[in-house]
Amino acid sequence: MLAAAALLRRCTVSGLRAAVRRPAGPAAVLHARCYSHGSQESDEEFDARWVTYFNKPDIDAWELRKGINTLVGYDLVPEPKIIDAALRACRRLNDFASAVRILEVVKDKAGPHKEIYPYVIQELRPTLSELGISTPEELGLDKA
What does the DSSP 8-state code read for residue 21? Predict the structure, then answer.
């Protein structure tokens, strides 16, 4: 009983769901998984997964917004190549508003690190010119 109480203190709620009790007997063992053995995704794999997602030729507006919302939920500023793929998806959908909103979100995600957003815009400048997308600053949206 004492061992079970110690196990309860160590495990999380999800670990408790995985607890299995063997039939009572002298060798009764309580198994529990208190952590995940999932594989870690490298930065390159993460970037490739999102570039592939936004490069789908049949992506629709809902999938675009869902992808951006999921990406924004992560504790990171997306790499320029991911943003490039998302902007190209916006162009395929003729969704200028989403393209500008993506750039606004990138600026917001950069937060207090003032050097990140200019770097991203510098890296995206050829794509922005090619697709005819204006930055929020060029549209005067930063003065609201």
Answer: E
